[in-house]
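Retry 2 of 3 after timeout on previous attempt. Resubmitting structure tokens to design endpoint.
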């Protein structure tokens, strides 16, 4: 299958990015934005956080506005990064999927602040306008990556666990809001899964519910639910039932609630492993709940910010 949409800002990085001395200073980035843009256009950037082939589609034209970011927003960003880092450490995470990232320019030290060290490989689809980005990060010592496909709404990493012979497709999705775009996404992913042999892990924020019981206080679209359910059925995927709470998202006033987050696996994985379970945890400061997935010797934790896989 071809590389989907093939955007040049989709990055796949290798072992050379483990160096602990790599660091990007924000002040230096600000003063050299124009030079860096020219380097990227020619494919000759010397900035280690922007390797050859990286192009910044959204330039930082409002530097003063960014530097004047409110204290509350900065505190929330630090809180989220620290939360991810803590969960990665406690659960010995080996695969991390971040959804709705606001990064419009890749910065290794921000990825490291969530992962905990520089011993990782990753791929990303950066944020564009109001559309959040997607980042997948994995442990080089645990995963053998063989291929990657990226799109505005998903990242697929084809890989093997180092202690397994099975091929896996780790799919990280941040679903679109537009109905037509959603239908296009389901068709694209269905074709991909049906034409590739391997076990599938899908972690996503779909911005969609499967039936009317999964939403409260908001409009339910039967046609969109049917399209989504048809995709799951035709790809032989199975959603893990979640305990703990009925909904995974709630607005600030508590008048609207939905189950927007889903964790779906190949049916073959469900059949092979009987002690599979998922638990919805506390929301914390986020509008989405955390999830804990237990799969024998694997633990997976998912938030609206990110999802984790541990083995």
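Retry 2 succeeded. Sequence:
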């Amino acid at each position: 299958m071809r590389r989907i949409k093939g955007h040049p800002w989709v990055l796949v990085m290798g072992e050379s990015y483990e160096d602990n001395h790599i660091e990007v200073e924000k002040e230096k980035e600000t003063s050299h934005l124009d030079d860096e843009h020219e380097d990227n256009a020619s494919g000759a950037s010397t900035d280690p956080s922007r390797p050859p082939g990286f192009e910044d589609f959204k330039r930082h034209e409002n530097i003063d506005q960014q530097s004047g970011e409110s204290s509350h927003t900065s505190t929330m960003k630090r809180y989220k990064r620290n939360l991810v880092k803590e969960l990665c450490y406690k659960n010995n995470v080996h695969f991390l999927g971040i959804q709705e990232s606001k990064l419009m320019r890749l910065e290794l030290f921000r990825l490291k602040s969530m992962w905990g060290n520089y011993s990782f490989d990753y791929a990303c689809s950066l944020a564009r306008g109001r559309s959040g980005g997607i980042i997948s990060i994995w442990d080089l010592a645990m995963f053998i990556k063989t291929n990657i496909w990226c799109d505005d709404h998903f990242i697929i990493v084809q890989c093997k666990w180092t202690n397994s012979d099975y091929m896996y497709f780790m799919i990280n999705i941040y679903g679109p809001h537009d109905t037509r775009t959603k239908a296009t996404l389901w068709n694209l992913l269905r074709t991909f899964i049906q034409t590739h042999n391997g076990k599938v892990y899908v972690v996503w924020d779909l911005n969609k519910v499967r039936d009317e019981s999964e939403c409260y206080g908001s409009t339910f679209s039967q046609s969109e639910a049917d399209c989504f359910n048809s995709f799951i059925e035709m790809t032989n995927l199975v959603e893990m039932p979640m305990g703990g709470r009925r909904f995974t998202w709630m607005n600030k006033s508590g008048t609207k609630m939905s189950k927007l987050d889903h964790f779906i696996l190949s049916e073959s994985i469900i059949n092979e492993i009987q002690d599979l379970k998922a638990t919805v945890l506390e929301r914390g400061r986020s509008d989405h709940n955390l999830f804990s997935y237990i799969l024998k010797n694997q633990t997976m934790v998912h938030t609206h910010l990110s999802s984790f896989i541990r083995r």
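Attempt log closed. The chain has one domain: 11-25+75-310.
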